[in-house]
Amino acid sequence: EIVLTQSPATLSLSPGERATLSCRASQSVTFYLAWYQQRPGQAPRLLIFDTSNRATGIPDRFSGSGSGTDFTLTISSLEPEDFAVYYCQQRYTWPLTFGGGTKVEIK
Amino acid sequence: EVHLVESGGGLEQPGGSLRLSCVVSEFTFRGYVMNWVRQAPGKGLEWVACINGDGTSTNYADSVEGRFTISRDNSRNTLYLQLNRLRDEDSATYYCAKGPFFGGATYFDLWGQGALVTVSS
Asked: In chain A, which residue's Cα lies nearest the Cα of B94?
């Protein structure tokens, strides 16, 4: 099983600041990595698929990069609605796995 | 607008059974792989099971293999998850989640609102 480790566990930032979230895989997932946002009480929402492709309707302040085992989600300038938990997920091999999440909270 | 609506959650005793349903509208259901993903209270996401567009291929997480069964009825636009031999650790919100392909390992581009399953005596 591929283990995804997200860091930091919590990121405390102010609106307008840049957020950089990390996801590290225990073995290469090539580029088959996705990112999701989950707001309190809501279902997850797809942000980025296959490393760097924004899902439909996702603002361009969200971007993804990386390859192999190291991936990054960047939010260029935090909006109030961006304070949430973010998960990465790999689809390179079975079982599909998620990272443990990074909570972006208001400083 | 596309909708995925889960139902069938509730309270069940350890060793018991439940069946979850997910009714889908506004897209060609039979063309897409479907999954169940769960989230224990206050915890992260865990993929549970996957079924391809015509129901001929399934995959399961080790934690549920042999106890849970994923199925689909394309004539009813409905996805199912049969949960048997329930354990305390199966308590979670169960989401149905669509993939953008016919089959195979996928990411999840649409999610339902979730169905809560509580296993407790």
From this structure: A43
Q: How far is A73 from chain B (nearest CA, A)?
A: 16
Distance (Å, rounded) from C-alpha B80 to C-alpha B6?
9
- Name the minimum distance, in Å, from the CA of B17 to any CA of chain A: 24
Interface of A with B in 1-30 (CB under 8 A): none
CB atoms within 10 A of CB B62: 9
Question: Within 13 Å, how many C-alpha atoms sit on residue B45's CB side?
Answer: 35
Question: Which among B85, B60, B72, B80 is positioned nearest to B29, based on CA atoms?
Answer: B72
Question: How much of chain A is helix, strand and coil, in % rounded to 5?
Answer: 5, 50, 50
- Mutation site for A-interface testing, chosen from B34, B107, B109 by largest number of A Cβ within 10 Å: B107
pLDDT tens per residue across all 121 residues of chain B: 778 999 999 999 999 999 999 999 877 888 899 999 999 999 999 999 999 999 999 999 999 999 999 999 999 999 999 999 999 999 999 999 999 999 999 999 999 999 999 999 9
Give CA–CA dist B107/A87, Å, rounded. 12
Residue of B nearest to A57 (CA): B109
3-state SS track over A28-59: CCCCCEEEEEECCCCCCEEEEECCCEECCCCC
Site from A31, A90, A96, A102 to mutate, B interface, most B CB atoms within 10 angstroms:
A96
